[in-house]
Here is the input.
Amino acid sequence: MWREIWLICRKDLTVERRARVTLIQIVPTVLLILVVFAFAFDANPSLLGAGAGGLFWVAVLFGTVLGAKRSFDIEAEGGNLDALRLGGLSPAAILWGKAAALAIQMAAVALCTAAGLVVLFSVTVSDWLLLVTAAVCGTAAFSICGCLYGAMTVGLRSADTLLPLLLIPVAAPVLLAGTRAFDVALGTSADQGWSWTALLAVVLVTYVAVGWAAAGPLLEDA
Amino acid sequence: MIETPEPDLRRQAQPPSMTGSVATRVLGSIGLAAAAVMAILALWISPADAVQGDAVRLMYVHVPSIWVAYGGFALTAFASMRVLWRTRGGIGGTEGVIADRQARHWDRVAGAAAELGVMFTALTLVTGSLWGKVTWGSYWQWDARLTTTVLLFVTYLGYLALRRLPTESRARARRSAVMALIAVVNLPIVHYSVDWWRTLHQEASLSLGPGGDRNYTGEMYWTLLYSWATFTVVALWIGMHRYRVLRLEELAEEAALEELLSVRRGEHSSEPSESDR
Here is the structure.
C-alpha cells in the first residue's frame, strides 16, 4: 500500500517537474491575489497587516482549487484513471498518492505566499512553532479535501465551475481555524492559537477518515 | 440452516402514481392546523420582549427553521452512510438488486432531506436578516454565526448541484454521499460558532441539560418549543412529498429510456438483414 502511494506521488511530482504548472502558473496566481487584495484595501499597511493571516489562507485555498483541478485533469485525459486501476493499484493508494503530491506542491505554494506576505505586507512572526504547525495541518487538510473533490468531479463536463463551488465552502473550517491561529502567530491577536490549531488537526483527521472511507466509491465510479 | 424467504420483487416494484397518500393528507392537515395555532401563539399570546420588542416574534420562525435544517442535514449524512454501505458490493443477483433498491431509497431520502435543509436554512437567513435590521440596524453583519450559516447554505447548494449532474445514478449517489459526509462537519461549527467566537449573535436559544441557560422563559419558551414541533411536522410532510417526487422523476427517466430502447429495437428489426439484401 505505502509503495503504491509513493508510486503515484512520485508520478505526479515527476509530471509537475516536467510541466512546472505549480511553479509558473499557480504560484504567480497566488501572489497576484496578494497584490490584488492590496489594491482592494487601498494599500493600507495597518489593514493589510491585520488581515495577513486570513489573506494567506484565502490565497492557499485558491491555489488548492487550481492544484486539485490540475491533479485530476491529467488523469481524465486518455482514461489514465482506468489504466491505473487496471494496473492493479487500489483506489485508496491512488487517492492518497495524489493527495501527498498535492500537499507537497501546496506546501511550496504556502511557502511562496508566506514569503510574499513578509515582503509585500511587512508581517513579523511572533510564534514560529504555532505558525508552522498550523500551516502544515491546514495545507494537508486543504490538499486532502481538494483531492476528494477533484475525484468527485473528475470527468464531469461542468467540473471547472463545480469544483470551486463545492470545495471553497467545505474548506471553510480550515480557513477559519487557520486564520485565527495565524493571527496569534503573527501577533495581531491574543486568542488561543493552539486551540485553533487543535481544531485544524481535528478537521484534518476527519478528512483523513472520510478519505479512507470514500476512496473506493469515488474512484471506482470516476 | 435457516432459509430466508425470497423477497417479492414484483410487489416492491409497484410504482407510485402520485405523491399524496392518507399519511401525507393527515400530516398535512395536522401541520396546517398546528401552523394556525402557532401564528396565534406567536403573534398574540406570547408577550413582546423587554429588549427586542415585537421583533422577538421572528424568533418563532427563525430558531425552529435552523433546528429543522440541522435535522435535515443530519438525516442527509445518515442516509448517505446507508447509500455507501448498500453500494459497497456488486450489482448483480437478487441481493444486488435489493441492495441497489435500498441504496436508491436512501439516496432519495438524502436528496429530499438536503433540499429541506437548504430551504429552511434560507428561511433562517431571511428571518435573521429582517431581525437584524430591526435590532442591529442592518440586514447583515460579518458575524461568525451568520457567516458560517451562509457557508453551510452554499455547501449544500453545491451538494444539490452535484446531485443534478447528468451522470449514471449509482455513481451520482455515491459521489453525493461522500460530499454529504464531508459537508456535515460544518454543522457543529455553525452551532458552536456563538460559543467559539465573540459574536453579535446571541447564544443558543435553548440549552440542553440540567445546567443549561434559557434565553426564553414562560410563554416565550413554550411557544418556541411548539413552533419547533410545528415546523417538524410541516418539514416531514414536505419531505414525504419531495421523496415521492424524486421517485416519480426516476420512474419517468426509466420509462423514457425504455421507450427510446424500444424505438431503437423497432428500427433495428425493421432494417433489412444481410440475408434479405
